[in-house]
């Protein structure tokens, strides 16, 4: 029983790490007014699309001239970068901000109804470290129609859902589900099938993070079908990754592997390097649970190379954590897991990812535990516990407390272990 209990604790630790991997970045950065001295904004006009490269963390500003009461809808086609888009009125009041959970490929659409005549400012900001391209164009510029307020409300709901989903607490995820469900109903009313598929994906990932895997499979499946119907291969690949994770958590390893492999083929065909790195990472876990250590190492290593090449530091940390899990299983490489996890810890601290940091600290505790270096194990478990308290991560806290109890049991301190 003791061995089985320890296995449950270790698998939960792995689950926490896998849940953190998504096809989009959080938290959402906020687009701000450009400081004085920056280059002037480019003018954006209907019928004149602009394509540009966007460096990591960079922002581009556009000027749009609108009449009072005019409806404007702009589309930013993401081509290898994930952007946040905001619009400010002539008084520099932010009117709208959007960031859908559709990763680095696919459209970000933003709509407003001008509240006064004048020059409006649209800001496209990268939420990634690596560069990418995008194309921006004005899709509509016309008098207000009855459905416009519904469209704007749907855009707000899906963006708020993504923001709440990124916080990854039980309460925020329930709130995210409410927002995505509202967006889904609004988009269906507007017969916007692609947007409907994005909302379904958000519902799938929110339920997945809550551990409600059958609901997640239901929503991911619907999203995938709609994306295929809309001929959005990148959207279908993203939904298939969601399906793969949900099947992996339910123990259906072959199903998970099939969906990861399908998404990998699509990502390669589209040249979506970041998506390829995520799919390889998922395949690493699928092979890990199938006890195919060599294939797991191969896929984690290939994912790591892509994360490093694309400057995805958080993704690099995740791939390192995957490698460490395989190393821990292999006697001849077990001690190497410590150095790998410490490198992952450095990366997560650089990115400010405290949830990931807590999980890595707990993982380090478990590796030292397996090496019977109990003092080091206890030190890392205590660091993890302190951070879990700070950020309110109850599942990670439970796993860490279990590690501390396992150490106490090993020393024969039964009362302490029970506490």
Strand order, main sheet: write it out: 1-3-8-5-6
Helix-strand pattern? HEEEEEEEEEHHHHHHHHHHHHHH
CATH superfamily of the largest domain: Tetratricopeptide repeat domain
CATH topology (fold) name of the largest domain? Serine Threonine Protein Phosphatase 5, Tetratricopeptide repeat
Count the domains: 2
Name the CATH class of the largest domain.
Mainly Alpha
Number of strands: 9
Cα distance spanning the termini: 18 Å
- Helix percent band: 55-70%
Q: What is the alpha-carbon Rg in Å?
A: 23 Å
Write a structural description.
The protein has 419 residues and is of the alpha+beta class. It folds into 2 domains: 2-28 and 154-418, Alpha Horseshoe (Serine Threonine Protein Phosphatase 5, Tetratricopeptide repeat); 42-145, Jelly Rolls (Sandwich). 60% of the residues lie in helices and 16% in strands. The protein has 15 helices and 9 strands. It has helices at residues 2-19, 148-167, 170-190, 193-209, 213-229, 233-249, 253-270, 273-289, 293-309, 313-329, 336-351, 354-370, 374-391, 394-410, 414-418, and strands spanning 42-43, 50-54, 59-66, 70-79, 83-88, 94-98, 105-113, 118-126, 132-143. The strands form 2 sheets. A 5-stranded mixed sheet has the order 1-3-8-5-6. The protein has a 4-stranded antiparallel sheet with strand order 2-9-4-7. Strand 5 and strand 6 form a beta hairpin. Helix 1 packs antiparallel against helix 12, helix 9 packs antiparallel against helix 10 and helix 12 packs parallel to helix 14. It is elongated. The relative contact order is 0.09. The model is unreliable at 1-20 and 23-37 (pLDDT under 50).
């Amino acid at each position: 029983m003791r061995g089985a209990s320890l296995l449950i604790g270790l698998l939960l630790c792995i689950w926490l790490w896998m849940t953190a991997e998504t096809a989009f970045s959080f938290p959402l950065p906020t687009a701000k007014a450009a400081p004085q001295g920056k280059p002037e904004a480019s003018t954006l006009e209907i019928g004149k699309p602009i394509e540009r490269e966007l460096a990591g963390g960079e922002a581009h500003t556009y000027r749009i001239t609108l009449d009072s009461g005019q409806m404007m809808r702009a589309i930013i086609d993401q081509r290898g970068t994930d952007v946040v888009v905001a619009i400010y009125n002539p008084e520099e009041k932010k009117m709208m901000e959007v960031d859908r959970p559709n990763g680095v490929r696919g459209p970000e659409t933003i709509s407003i109804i001008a509240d006064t005549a004048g020059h409006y400012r649209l800001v496209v900001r990268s939420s990634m470290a690596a560069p990418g391209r995008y194309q921006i164009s004005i899709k509509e510029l016309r008098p207000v129609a009855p459905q416009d307020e519904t469209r704007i409300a749907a855009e707000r709901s899906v963006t708020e859902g993504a923001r709440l989903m990124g916080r990854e607490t039980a309460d925020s995820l329930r709130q995210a589900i409410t927002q995505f469900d509202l967006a889904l109903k609004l988009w269906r009313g507007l017969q916007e099938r692609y947007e409907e598929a994005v909302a379904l994906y958000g519902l799938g990932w929110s339920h997945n993070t809550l551990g409600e895997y059958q609901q997640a499979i239901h929503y991911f499946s619907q999203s995938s079908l709609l994306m295929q119907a809309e001929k959005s291969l990148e959207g279908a690949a993203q939904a298939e990754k969601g399906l793969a994770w949900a099947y992996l958590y339910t123990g259906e390893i072959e199903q998970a592997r099939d969906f990861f492999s399908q998404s990998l083929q699509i990502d390669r065909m589209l040249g979506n390097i970041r998506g390829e790195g995520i799919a390889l990472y998922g395949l690493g876990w699928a092979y890990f649970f199938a006890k195919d250590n060599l294939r797991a190492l191969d896929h984690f290593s290939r994912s790591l190379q892509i994360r490093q090449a694309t400057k995805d530091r958080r993704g690099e940390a995740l791939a390192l954590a995957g490698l460490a899990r395989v190393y821990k299983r292999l006697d001849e490489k077990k001690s190497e897991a410590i150095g790998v996890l410490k490198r992952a810890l450095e990366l997560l601290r650089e990115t400010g990812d405290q949830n990931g940091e807590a999980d890595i600290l707990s993982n380090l505790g478990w590796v030292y535990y397996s090496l019977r270096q109990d003092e080091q194990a206890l030190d890392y478990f205590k660091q993890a516990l302190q951070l879990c308290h700070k950020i309110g991560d109850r599942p990670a806290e439970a796993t860490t407390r279990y590690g501390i109890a396992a150490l106490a049991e090993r020393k024969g301190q039964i009362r302490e272990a029970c506490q």
